[in-house]
Write a structure and sequence with these properties.
The chain has 431 residues and is an alpha+beta fold. It contains 14 helices and 25 strands. It has a five-stranded mixed beta sheet. It has a four-stranded mixed beta sheet with strand order 2-15-17-16. α1 runs parallel beside α7, α8 runs parallel beside α10 and α10 runs parallel beside α12.
Amino acid sequence: MEKFVVTGGKPLFGEVNISGAKNAAVAIIPAVILCDEPCQIENIPNISDVSLISRILQQMGANVRRINKSSLYIDPTHIKTCNATTDLVRGMRASYYLLGALLGKYGKAKVALPGGCNFGVRPIDQHLKGFEAMGARTSLVDGAIIEAECDEPLEGNHIYLDVVSVGATMNIMLAASKAQGLTIIENAAKEPHIVDLANFLNSMGADIRGAGTDVIKIRGVGYLHGVTYSIIPDQIEAGTYMCAAAATRGCITVNNITPKHLDSITAKLREMGVVITEYDESIKIDATQRPLKRCNIKTMPHPGFPTDCQPQFAALLMSVPGTSIINENVWDNRYQYVSELIRMGAQISVEGRLAIIEGGAPLTAAPVKATDLRAGAAMIIAALEVKGTTEISSIQYIERGYEDVVEKFRALGADIKKVYFTGDNEEELGA
């Protein structure tokens, strides 16, 4: 069993470089299916989700080659099948982007229902609503596989999303990029990775306008040419290290970011008393100058506070005196991690969508587990806060979305290592 072993109680200092955005990469890599020539994708995060989606494309016949740690060459012109039903597909949440890409390119797709983090049902009804509006038939086979097919080429249509859905917005964009005529998505999500996907598709010759607003217009084109494209920095990875610096009362500089993407996170840290200095592509977080104050957080679709930074802030707030309240408005079951923080002495109660944190209680190291990707990041932050040694299990969730997490935290002065346990023995990995 692999675990992270963290000895906390020391402030973080130094600089950290942020990798490419996970949530952009896992959509842009399948989007290459739509291209009629090879592409090169740069600033790719070196994480397990990227490895998974790359292997899935290889299974389908694409030539996928890693040029270096952060660049992929993808030639989709030899894809032989529209079926993606292997266990690899079930292993990641974002595999549903294969539906939109395959349907847009070939007019049919057969994709296994996705897996990934287990913190609530992620219905894809809005995805299917969009495909059906463009003329596709969709069906669920054996409760585990989604089939989508159209007899005639997809036709653009007016699609109103009943709920703001990042996945549906991106999937419909993919399918509509080669559909005939104009597709309009209303009540579209506005996250930075949606803009990044639109920019990637446009760089290949697609005609997408309005990404980043709640109305996106896609005029289908017949041919997409190959490009070299660099993915945006990961705002959630950046937010995680910002939280860790504040939680340990340290001072770090976060490099390779787009400060505008971090506005909602920055605003909350400033409200708590963290001194923040923004530069063109970096940001300095200084929590050494004054005591931190409690705050309340309400997660919302972008540009509101991101749900993917909510667990990290809970770990930060458990050490800040006073009562803080988190209101989770995106996912119904995102508080599974709370029981793990309680093991460390956190005073947190959950009432429906609210988590009430009585900060400042004595905290101690304890064995905990990652219940999902961002919860795992919260466990690392909590372990860095408390004195003593904490073992974190189920770290495969963390490695889905954080590149070189041990090395990056070590560079900031953290005492963290990845250990392989076999019975009574342990061996440090990557030492």
